[in-house]
Amino acid sequence: MTQTVGEQALRNLTAPNPEAEYRIHSEIERNRKGMFRLIIKHNGRELPRAEIRYRHRKHEFLFGCNAFMHKQFQKEEENLFYEERFLNLFNHAIIPFYWDALEPEPHQYRFTAGSSRIDRRPPPDILVDFCEKHGLEAKGHCLSWQGLVPKWLPRDPDKVATLLEERIAVIAERYGHRIPRWDVCNEILQWNPYLHEVSLPPDHAERAFRVAAKYFPDTARLIYNEGPWVSWNDFHGEYTPPYLLARHLLEHGFHVGGMGLQYHLAFYDCSAKGLEKLISWGEQMSNVKYLFAHLDQYGKLGIPLNISEITLPSHAELGDGEEFQRAAAEMLYRIWFSHPATEAIVWWNMVDDTAYVQADNFNGQQGENYYKGGLLRRDFTEKPAWKALDHLINHEWRTAGTLDYNAAKINTFRGFYGSYDIEIRTDAGTFHTTLDCRKEVPHQFTIDLDELN
After folding, report:
1. 153 close to 160: Cβ distance less than 8 angstroms
2. Which of 58, 150, 286, 359 could cross-link 419 (Cys pair, CB 3.0–4.6 Å)?
3. Average pLDDT over the chain, rounded to whole?
4. Burial (CB count within 10 angstroms: exposed 0-12, middle 13-18, buried 19+), residue 299
5. Terminal C-alpha separation, the chain
6. Positive/negative CA dihedral, 210, 211, 214, 216
C-alpha cells in the first residue's frame, strides 16, 4: 500500500520502537514525579489517623502557547471561548514584544489597553493582567531579533545598538518584575547581515544579553531562542551549531538562563518538491534517535531547555492531515516531557487561521495559515491533536488518590510535580489545603490542622 506524504514524513517517529518507549516511560517516572511525605498535626501532636485525598491541580512543568490572539477576535463570544480553551490546556503564555509592533514610531510604545490595534499583537499590559489573574507563567518574546523591526530604524549599526539598549531598558523597567522569562535573542544562527534589512551590530547577541543583564532583575530568566532547522535538523555532536553558540555565551560569562528550541515542521510550499522537503526532514527532525541526541547534547549545557515554538501542519496534502498532526504531537510531547533537561513545551498558534501572514512569504496571502497548524479549527472545534494533548496533560500526566494516614508509619504518595489540592478527613472534621510539590524543594510537608481553621 502506498504511503501518504504524512506517513512518509513520520516514518522515523511513529514506527514501533520498544527501546524509545522504555526510555520515555522510565524517564517520565524519574524526572517528572516525586515521593511526597505528609505529617499531619492536631492540638500540638501528630494526628493518629486520617483519610487524605490528593488531586494534582497544576503542573510544575510548563505547557504553553503564544497568547497573541487574546481579545483579538471580532466576536466577544470567540474571545471568551479562546480564553477558556487556553486555560484548559496551558499554564504558560508567550507575550509578543516584537519591535515593529511595540514601537511603530520612535518612543511611542503600545503598552496599554486601548492602544492602536495590530493583528496578533495585543498590548502587553492586557496579557500580563491575564497571566496574573489566572496564575499563568509569562514569557516575553523577544528583545532582539533581525526580523519584524520598525522601518524607522537607522542603517547605522552603532545607532541601532543604542536604540536596542533603550528598548530593553524601557521594557525591563515596566515588566522586569512582572514577567519572569524573556527570549533575549531569537534565531541568531539564521541572521545574515547581507540579507536582513536591519543593520544589527556584529556582536548583537552578546550585546543583547549584556544589556538585558544590566536592566532586568537577577530573578529574570534570560533565554537564547533558536530556529527550528538548525536546532533539530543539523546534528554534529559537540559541533552542533546552537550548542556551540550557547556554550560560547556561557563560557564568556553571559547570563543565559535557558535555551529555546523552535520546532516548526512547516514552511515548505505545497508543490511536489515542497512536500519532498518535508519528507526529507524526517531523516533527523522527526526521527526519535536524533530527537533524543539533540536533547542529550543541549542538556550538557546545564541550562533548562524549552521547546519554544511548535507548528505541526494538518493540511490536506499530507493525506489525513489531522491524523498526521495528532501522531506527531503525541509522540513529540512524550519525548520532550520525558527528558530531564526540558522544562517547557510551547505550541505556537492554538487556533487555525490565526497565524502570521506576510503576502510575499510562504504560499501567498495565506501565509503560515496554509499549514493549518492550530490545535483547534477556526470554529474552535477540537482536532485530534488537541484531544491527544488534553489526554496527556490533563489525564495521563495527572495524579489523584487516597492515602490512609497512620501516625505509626511513614505516610507518602507519589505523583507528578506541581500544585495539589489536599482534603483531610478526620474525626474532628474535614480540612482543606494546598501543597506546592516541586522538584527542587524538600518533599516533606507538615500540615497543622489548627492553622487551617
Report:
1. yes
2. 58
3. 96
4. middle
5. 67
6. negative
The percentage of the chain sitting over the pLDDT mark of 70, rounded to a whole number, equals 98
Rounded CA separation 413/35 (Å): 6
Instruction: Return the HEC string of the chain.
Output: CCCCHHHHHCHHHHCCCHHHHHHHHHHHHHHCEEEEEEEEEECCEECCEEEEEEEEEEECCEEEEECCCCCCCCCHHHHHHHHHHHHHHCCEEEEECCHHHHCCECCECCCCCCCCCCCCCCCHHHHHHHHHHHCCEEEEEEEECCCCCCCCCCCCHHHHHHHHHHHHHHHHHHHCCCCCEEEEEECHHHCCCCCCCCCCCCCHHHHHHHHHHHHCCCCCEEEEEECHHHHHCCCCHHHCHHHHHHHHHHHCCCCCCEEEECEECCCCCCCHHHHHHHHHHCCCCCCHHHHHHHHHHHHCCCCCEEEEEEECCCCHHHCCHHHHHHHHHHHHHHHHHHCCCEEEEEECCCECCCCCCCCCCCCHHHHHHHHCCCCECCCCCECHHHHHHHHHHHHHCCCEEEEEEECCCCCEEEEECEEEEEEEEECCEEEEEEEEECCCCCCEEEEEHHHCC
pLDDT in tens, 60-89: 999 999 999 999 999 999 999 999 999 999
Type of residue found at 19:
E
| pLDDT score for 406 | 98
Cell digits for 412?
507518602
List pLDDT tens digits, range 238-291. Answer: 999 999 999 999 999 999 999 999 999 998 887 889 999 999 999 999 999 999
pLDDT per residue as tens digits for the range 208-231: 999 999 999 999 999 999 999 999
Written as nine digits, the cell of 372 is 493549518
